[in-house]
Amino acid sequence: MRRAAVAVIATTMAVSMAACGKAGDDKKSDSSSSSAGGTTAKIGLLLPDSVTTRYEKFDKPYFEAKVKELCSGCTVEYNNANASAATQAQQVSSMITKGVKVIVVSAQDSAAIKSSIQQAVDKGIKVVAYDRLAQGPVSAYVSFDNVQVGKLQGEALLTSLGSKATKSSKIVMINGDDADPNAAQFKKGAHEALDGKVDIAYEQSGLWKDSVAGQKMSAAITQLGAKNIAGVYSANDGMAGGIATVLKGAKIGSIPLTGQDAELAGIQRIVAGTQSSTVYKAFKPEAEAAATLAVDLAQGKSISSLATTTQTSGSGNKVPSQLLTPVSVTKANIKDTVIKDGLYTVAQICTADYAAACKAAGLQ
Asked: Could you say which residues of the chain have pLDDT below 70?
């Protein structure tokens, strides 16, 4: 009899797992623990773009490190789609050719990748949807509660508006890319928080691009008038950067502006007062959860102890899921979130351009 145990920690919860098996028993283990030795397997990691800074800077290295910790004989094959669904489809084909046992993919286009996922599954490859729920026969999904992300964004916007949060207050809403299923969930959560409390007078997709979001913001100013805009909902920090630039150029004061992903530039704008909030989705526990699922699937183990809920994809597939908890970040809790977790140091945030603002915010 042999026993192995590994603890997996994800932001607000800890799950303990143990595996039992006896020599010669061909039955699969019920556990979702991962052994540090034994298995030799290739695991594919496909991320959607390099514009969103988190993927290359955080998700990839955290994922690779956790795979190495859990399975010394496993290797990670990595590709970035650079915002191209066609490129990502080619990358899936390449992973199949390389003989990977598991593909972890954050889909550039959740619908377009469906056929590629089917091709991988037909070759006996397990697929884990990462951060975005891809369509097709996916074995597992790890992300955050994305409707809750949108609610946090909407609630933060209302809080920042204060007494100006009235049914006549005009809000500009710049959503994410419709090809990303998360964007629809963020939008849903935001509407749940905002509808009936403010007037969403202009709503468009910014395609996750700062330039597009900036163009949409310019159009909103032309349509509504600069003085009539009370606040802006931006679905992520990248787009918030483009929006903030347009607001500054239009000489609009520091009105509430949301974001998401806790990008360094977003945190710096919050310190400076040109962005009011972001949403912190801790990258390390998400990447480590995905790595653990991937290693367990590569080793033929059950993932039921990790994927404790179910999400339904756009193709109707019910996917075992592990959802982590997002956190709203404002100037008041930067110290207790991104700095406390070691995502950024005070020195990284408080560069020369932000030194005075950091001092005023109590960060220095």
From this structure: 1-38
